[in-house]
Amino acid sequence: MKKYLLAVALMLPLFAQAEGRTGVVDPIGALQEAKEFQDRFGKLESSLKDEQNRLDRLGGEVENLRGRLEKEGMTMSEDEREQLQTQGQQKMIELQNLRQSAQRKLNKGQQEILQVMEPKLKQAVETVAERENLDMVLNAQAVVYVKSDMDITEAVTKQLNSMK
């Protein structure tokens, strides 16, 4: 009887392992590779092109003013130097405001993309999990080690791409 109980106790982990199948997904990676996400993010970046161009232009103007102050500052009159410094400060304030505005637009756009894509990602993970007969799917960032055959990220991306 003791031998029988010992044999059963030793085999319990094998039964538990055979029973539950686990998959791992990198949700960020799956989203970033999905065509719809890339399209939406591309549109967001395009909508911010004007702000980026203005930021680049203003940054150049600030650098030009600084360079001028360094090179010619000693030979300028006090009024000219103060005027140039004031111009530089105004440009810096404008640059900072524009940078903050562009960052807010970017954050808002990213949030809108995630609001649309998160339910689709969840559905894609569930579909792949059911198809692969998985009992559990873990986030890859929470896993220290995983065998490559347990990673379903590519399958989730394919599922996302097939969804409308």
Structure description:
The protein is mainly alpha-helical and 164 residues long. It has a single domain (18-162), classed as 2-Layer Sandwich (Protein Binding, DinI Protein, Chain A). It has six helices and two strands; from the N terminus they run αβααααβα. The chain has helices at residues 2-19, 27-33, 35-47, 49-72, 78-131, 153-162, and strands at 22-25, 136-139. The chain has a two-stranded parallel ribbon. Helix 3 (35-47) packs antiparallel against helix 5. The protein is elongated, with a radius of gyration of 28 Å. The N and C termini lie far apart (60 Å). Mean pLDDT is 87; it is low at 2-18. It comes from Alloalcanivorax venustensis ISO4. InterPro entries: Chaperone_Skp, Skp_dom_sf. Belongs to the Skp family. Residues 34-112 form a coiled coil. This is Outer membrane protein OmpH.
Total number of domains: 1
Query: Overall 3D geometry?
Result: elongated
Residue share in β-strands: under 5%
H-E string? HEHHHHEH
- Portion of residues in helices? over 70%
Could you tell me the CATH topology label.
Answer: Protein Binding, DinI Protein, Chain A
The total of helices stands at 6
Coiled coil: 34-112
Organism: Alloalcanivorax venustensis ISO4
Pfam family, one: OmpH
Family: Belongs to the Skp family.
